[in-house]
Amino acid sequence: MVSKRRHSPWFWIPCLCAAEEIPFAVVTYVALLMFLQFGASETMAAVYGGLLFLPLLLKSFFYNWARKTGFKWRIYVVEFLVFFCLMQTAFYLSENAVERWALFVHLFVLSILCAWHELYSRLYYHSMLQPREQHIFRSTKMAASLVALMLTYGLLIIVVGFFEVFFRNYQKAWAMESALVAGVFLLVCVLNIIVLRPPYRMHMRHLQQSPGEELLCQHEGHIFGRIRRSPRVLGVLACLFLLLLPQSLMFHVRVFFLMSPVEDGGLGCSVQEVGFAQGTIGVLAFSVGLIIGRYLAIVKGQDHLFWPASVVLTLSPGLYMLMALNPQPNNLFMLCCMTFLAQLFFGFGLNACMMFISYLSGNRYGSIVNYIHVPMVAGLMLVPIMLSGWLVTKLGYSDYFFFSTLLAPVAWVVLAVNRTKEKISNVFINS
């Protein structure tokens, strides 16, 4: 009875989600702050940060291969490698001289491991739980991910700021931060060893695949063949690219803006303020927006949500333009309010992308929609993210935010010209 309770999804789902989100936050957000503090220009920080997304973007293409390789010890092995990589990064940062390209290599290896761990965790989750059980534990999974992200994005960044004050050396502070993350992750790994079912049981359960898993594998070639062959799909991708473009341009620049000195047009925020505003308030707001959008999509339907979500998705640059035109570097409350709204819009607006993804998959199976959602959205955002650092150095923050804000009505016009509301409903929902 004790063993059964120990292996209950109420225990292993939070542990597995924590093991996913902690290193993921390091490579997607914490790494950007590290590049900036170790002297990288905004141009190179954006390039480095964008390249760290590549393994996370490509992971879904290896889903079918990973499913056939067996489950034995792979989650534990990858988690050990993640811990080793975090500790190696901490040792490297504690040295006297840190080369930015070498720091990028450490973090890129960590990004690859994060992608594999997320892939294996998804396989474990789908194999251990039937679709009905997945629906029951969906809120548990979301809550665990949210808590892990808030602790990593927010609390650990705030701790780094205190380390900087204590050591009076940002290099030692980041070394301690990496060691602290490694220690927390090791604790999560131990918990996973305790609460996850033995690999041989997981493998036997995995052999009884759900219909969604089988359909996902059967139609993998159909999805990407459809994307390559259909001329209409190219137009859909172009519309989705324009819709995501304002947010893509803001993805890293919002952090640059907060950390840049006041004389350079930024707000001159400390690491603690960035961690609290973006890492805690921002993550919370993004999650709330995502949940509200999904709830309205269920209640009202995706077709009714499409236009409101599309408009809201493109509004975030306008909020940062207001902060750039009327900077208040010492007003943390105002910064948190604007960050909350911007991230709320981002989370809510991302629900509009699901209609594009539904069309690309033929709107056949929910598992297929989830399979291509992340790589499709991340792939369209990648190039603008990497170019954003160079572009903001040429334009300055005020003009850059103004330019990003002007892209919003352009996206609206393109969507309105190519699809009226009725046509969108027919094409994206009934095709």
Question: What key phrases describe this protein's structure?
Answer:
431 residues; mainly alpha; 23 helices; 83% helix; disordered C terminus
What is the strand and helix layout of this fold?
Elements: H1 2-6, H2 9-37, H3 42-51, H4 54-58, H5 63-68, H6 74-93, H7 100-128, H8 131-136, H9 138-167, H10 170-195, H11 199-206, H12 211-218, H13 220-229, H14 231-250, H15 253-259, H16 271-300, H17 302-313, H18 316-325, H19 332-349, H20 353-360, H21 366-395, H22 397-418, H23 421-430
Helix pairs in contact: 2-3, 2-7, 2-9, 2-10, 3-21, 6-7, 6-10, 7-11, 9-10, 9-16, 12-21, 14-20, 14-21, 14-22, 16-17, 16-19, 17-19, 17-23, 18-19, 18-22, 20-21, 21-22
Question: Would you give an account of this structure?
Answer:
It is a single chain. The chain is 83% helix and 0% strand. With 431 residues, the chain is mainly α. Helix 7 crosses helix 11 (199-206) and helix 14 runs antiparallel to helix 22. It is globular and about 55 Å long.
Quantity of strands, as a count: 0
Categorize the overall geometry.
globular
Report the uncertain regions. Answer: 199-225, 364-369, 427-431
Helices and strands, in order, run as: HHHHHHHHHHHHHHHHHHHHHHH
| Overall average residue pLDDT | 78
Structural class: mainly alpha
Percentage of residues in DSSP E strands: under 5%
Radius of gyration: 22 Å
Summarize the main sheet. Answer: none
How large is the count of helical segments?
A: 23
Give helix % range.
over 70%
User: What is the terminal-to-terminal distance?
Assistant: 49 Å
